[in-house]
Amino acid sequence: MKAEKMLRLRDDLQEDGILFCYSGYMTEGVLSSIGKAIKDKLAIEEADKLVIRSVFGLFVEQVQNVIRYSEEVESKKSDEKVLELRYGVLTVGRKMIQENEKRFFVAVGNMVKPVDVERLNRNLTEIQQLDAGGLKALYKKILKGETPEGSKGAGVGFIDIARKSKNGFDFDFIAVNNDRTFFTLTAYA
Amino acid sequence: MDNIRIEATERTPEVDFSFEDNIFSLRGEAYPEDVNEFFGPLIDQLEEHFASLDSAEVSFNFELIYFNSSTAKILMMLFELLDSTAGEKNNQVTVNWLYDADDDNMEELGEEYGEDLENAKFNLVPQDN
Known about the structure:
heterodimer, A: 189 residues, alpha+beta, 6 helices, globular, B: 129 residues, alpha/beta, 6-stranded mixed sheet, 3 helices, 36% helix
């Protein structure tokens, strides 16, 4: 029964074209090693090197967003260090568009606070509506200015994802309970 | 100031800073676990060194294959530092952006950083491979 269940999980993932799936606590170490495996897999698939770079770039930004912002978080204080782990789900896969054309995607999902949903939704909708010129202008404006409040990086992660998503991105939310909403973003290289 | 030479790792670029010749290079991939930990000390030393320059010729070479969005912010700070250095005390600063000739994305990013330079000279340098 155990093998049957696990095989079904594998088959379901493969049916959706998923090459990599990780659900768990995300760390910079996880990023490094899965990143290496993704590069190797895409190299074996003989994907174009620029496509590999885009997929890899999308993967880094998406995973770092989970590492920094997932609200499903556990932490422990010891001495002066705070050990913190944030949970998320990652899938990297490919869809066959035509016989010889495949399109890669990188999706992540993680918990957010319901209070942040409106802001995320507004930001992402705005970004989604911008053309290449608009994305570039916004990217530069934020890089040159103060880092947006609440950001733990440069504050341009979503814009970078939009710029690397040559075939667009989509996102969705589902309320889980009063305290948590599940957020997912899929970027198509 | 002692020259700095740091080998590349999977996530950090090779750093080659020659303070005596005023030739500086960053080469490789840049998505450090902690951008401030990696770039912070380097930028501090560059700032200190550049402040002491007078009528100097400076070359800064960026030869990056990939950088993440946190590093993009650091690069913006570096370009601003280089441009302000070029605007002071007759310093001549040349910034070279070396990129894989096939990589339009990297070319575009170089253009975006370069177009804001008012004092430093900027060259986009495609590399064949």
